[in-house]
Automatic annotation (TrEMBL):
Active site: 200 (nucleophile), 200
Catalytic activity: dUMP + (6R)-5,10-methylene-5,6,7,8-tetrahydrofolate = 7,8-dihydrofolate + dTMP
Localization annotation: Cytoplasm
Protein name: Thymidylate synthase
Lineage of origin: Bacteria, Bacillati, Bacillota, Bacilli, Bacillales
Gene that encodes it: thyA
Primary residence: cytoplasm
């Protein structure tokens, strides 16, 4: 059994057994614990969960979207990635430009009302098609504000300048590997009000030892069933990419979560997942590159990934 995957399954069990019932922003309700840490040795295999299928290509395109400093969902849609659609769609339906049927509380209503779900899917299709084909519309409604890509690559300073945190931290790893300041933060209090979703993964730090690069993420809020599997794989991939550029081996990914929660409408899915036995972890294959900023989706592959079937669950918006 993979120790890496077991760390995630142990978190699921802990929250089911010890979690506090809490209201939340989405009005869905959660079981939650505060403060949890998992460790993943990247030498044991790439930590992409096997107890349910996790869509690796979506993780890749989302991470490259962050790395590019992009904040517009057009790039994601061009890569058939729809995981940020709801937040951009919400911006459109709340604008004066929207003339369609009432989409208020679409996240909950589409789960309970089949007729409304059909209307919602029609409006979402119209929205995504316009993002892909209409430059002005994409500029107005596809951008999510100062989310991860912006904070990583274009942090705004009080002097009206910007800081490329990701580029600077890579340079720092190369030039001063034992520094304790290899840090990138996405939590900018001034920009939080303008973000479609304030950063859940707020800060990460790199650590070099014995020729290996490790990364620790602090995540303020973790949707254990849908979000956390993505976060584990995404930051493990980021660590491997930066390690390759810096001529280091991947070390550990350490995942520290503040509010670790299972949504009320994900509990049955988590219980189903816990009945499954983990399989061998897959292997990550990276093509050669000089800079992570030049990496494309086709440069990243996963091998020997044979997971259990996917388990569907609604996203809380």
């Amino acid at each position: 059994m993979s120790k890496s995957e077991q760390a995630y399954l142990d978190l699921c069990k802990r929250v089911l057994e010890e979690g506090n019932n809490r209201d939340d922003r989405t009005k869905t309700g959660t079981l939650s614990v505060f403060g949890h840490q998992m460790r993943f040795n990247l030498a044991d295999g790439f930590p992409l969960l096997t107890t349910k299928k996790v869509p690796f290509r979506l993780i890749v395109s989302e991470l490259l979207w962050f790395i590019k400093g992009d904040t517009n969902i057009r790039y994601l849609l061009e890569n058939n990635n729809h995981i940020w659609n709801e937040w951009a769609f919400e911006k459109w339906i709340e604008s004066e430009d929207y003339k369609g049927p009432d989409m208020t509380d679409f996240g909950h209503r589409s789960l309970k009302d089949a007729d409304f779900k059909e209307q919602y899917e029609e409006q979402m299709k119209l929205f995504t098609d316009k993002i892909l084909t209409d430059n002005q519309f994409a500029e107005g409604f596809g951008d999510l504000g100062s989310v991860y890509g912006s904070q990583w690559r274009s942090w705004n300073t009080t002097k009206g300048e910007t800081i490329d945190q990701l580029k600077e931290v890579i340079t720092s790893i190369k030039e001063n590997p034992y520094s304790r300041r290899h840090i990138v933060t996405a939590w900018n209090p001034e920009d939080v009000p303008t973000m479609a979703l304030p950063p859940c993964h707020t800060m990460f730090q790199f650590y070099v030892s014995d020729g290996k690069l490790s990364c620790q993420l602090y995540q303020r809020s973790g949707d254990i069933f849908l979000g956390v599997p993505f976060n584990i794989a995404s930051y493990s991939l980021l660590t491997c990419l930066i390690a390759k550029e810096c001529n280091l081996a991947p070390g550990e990914f350490v995942h520290t979560i503040g509010d670790a929660h299972i949504y009320a409408n994900h509990i049955d899915q988590v219980k189903t997942q816990l009945t499954r036995n983990p399989k061998a972890l897959p292997a990550l294959k990276l093509k050669d590159f000089d800079s992570i900023f030049d990496v494309n989706v086709e440069d990243i592959e996963i091998e020997n990934y044979e997971p259990h079937p996917a388990i569907k669950a609604p996203i809380a918006v």
